[in-house]
Design a protein that fits this description.
Structural class: mainly beta
Radius of gyration: 25 Å
Shape: elongated
Distance between the termini: 28 Å
Strand order of the largest sheet: 7-6-5-4-8
Amino acid sequence: MGLPKNKEDKSAQTPETHANDGIALACCNFVSYEKFQTANTHGHQWFGEVQITQAPFRVIARPNLYRRQLHFENPDSNKPNLNQYRKRKGGTITPFGFRSGDYVLAKKADQEYFGWVGGYTDTEKAKKVSVYDINWKRIGQFTPSKVKLLQRKTGLLVAR
């Protein structure tokens, strides 16, 4: 098919690194390598045709959400309130109306950030929503009033 392949830097998020393998796999549905036999010759050849056209390249990833860890810490019988011996780890719904994995627009210091909700802090001192980029690196923690929901969680992160 003549698709260029970048074998030097596998971490680069470019079509030459990742998309060409997917294109080749998709083409297998339309092209096949089959036996043939005529009066004079026999062998194998490709049957079918694929026309490759330009298309947008999007990075698609799964969110790296915290899963339930029921036995992360052992109970401490010396604490006065026995319900407080384990810290909250993750969770899917924030008290601010967002869900982990929601695509949002967050504002801080006259700058706008697009990303996905990955966690929150809800204490007496601070109420914050953590927003992450496509590589699940935290962009920052934002006040819930400055975070706007753009799209509900789909289970996939699609770079825009």
